[in-house]
Amino acid sequence: MGRLCWAHFLNRGFETCGSTLPSQGLRLLMRYKSYSAAMKTLLVMDFDHTIIDDNSDTWIVKCAPEKKLPQELIDSYQKGKWNEYMGRVFKYLGDKSVEEGEIKKTMIKMPFTEGMLELINFIGKNKDLYDCIIISDSNTAFIDWILKAANVDSVFDKVFTNPAVFSRDGFLILEGFHVHECDHCPKNLCKKKVLVEFIDKQSQKGVKYSQINYIGDGENDFCPITSLKKNDVAFARKGFTLYKMLSEPPQEFVPVESSVVGWTSVFKMCP
Ligand SMILES: [Mg+2]
Ligand SMILES: [Zn+2]
Description:
The protein is an alpha/beta fold and 271 residues long. It has a domain at 40-54 and 111-162 and 176-268: HAD superfamily/HAD-like (Rossmann fold, 3-Layer(aba) Sandwich), CATH 3.40.50.1000. The protein contains 11 helices and 8 strands. The chain has helices at residues 6-10, 24-29, 56-59, 71-75, 82-95, 100-107, 116-125, 140-149, 191-204, 222-225, 241-247, and strands at residues 40-45, 130-139, 158-162, 164-166, 172-174, 209-216, 233-237, 259-263. A 6-stranded parallel beta sheet has the order 3-2-1-6-7-8. Bound molecules: magnesium ion and zinc ion. Magnesium ion (MG) binds at residues 46, 48-50, 216-218. GO terms for molecular function: metal ion binding; phosphatase activity. Its cofactor is Mg(2+). The active site is at residues 46, 48. This is Phosphatase, orphan 2.
C-alpha cells in the first residue's frame, strides 16, 4: 500500500480550485491541473459501497415477502455469475407481484456514503474541471432512481451499468453490460474495458485527462485500477476487498502503477 502524505501531494505543485472544500480528503480527491490547465481530471466512481453505503442488489431483499429470499434461490448463486443470480431474484419478486413503485420506494431509501453528496455536488459546481463517470455492476433502474431522488443525476457524464427495464407484466428484466475477454472479471462486466474504451473515445473527441481518480471498494474495481498510470490515484475503501487486494496484489494481474489512498468516508481519505 503506498504510504503517501499530505506533503507529498502539496509538493507536486497542484492547485485547489479556489472553492471552499469541506475536508482534506476532498481536496486530495480534487487536486487538478497537475499537467495542463486545459486538461480535466476524470473521476471514476463505483456505486455500491462507494456512492451508496450498502449494496443495492442485497438491499432489494427488503422488498421480498418477509424481507427474505427462499433458501434455494440464495443457494443458486454461482461464483462469477452474480448478474444471472440477480435476474432470478427479480423474477422471484415479479412472481410475488412486488411492484415497480414498491421497489423504487425501497431503493431510494438507501443511504449515501458519508460526505458523498457533498462531493458529488462539488463536482457538479466544477464541471469545467472534472468529468465524472460511474462504472457499476448494479443496474440502470436502481442507479437512475437513486441519483434522481437525490437530484444529482446530471452531475455524471456517463453511467456504465447493466441495463434493467420493467416488462409490461411487471418483471424487472436485467441484461449484461457487454461481452469481454478478460479472465479476471464477471462475464457481464469488465470495468477496465469500459474505462479504457471511454478514455479512447474521449481522446478521439480531443478530451484528454491530466489525471484519473478511481474510487471504489470491490473486487471488480481491481482490474480497472491496473489500467491507471503513475500520476493517477486509486481510492480504495478500507475494510473492503479492493483495499486488501491492493495491499497484496494478486500475481495474475499486471502491477498497479497508480498511487493508492485508503478511505472510510469522503471526509476520511487520509493517505
Ligand atoms: Mg462497490
Ligand atoms: Zn477485467
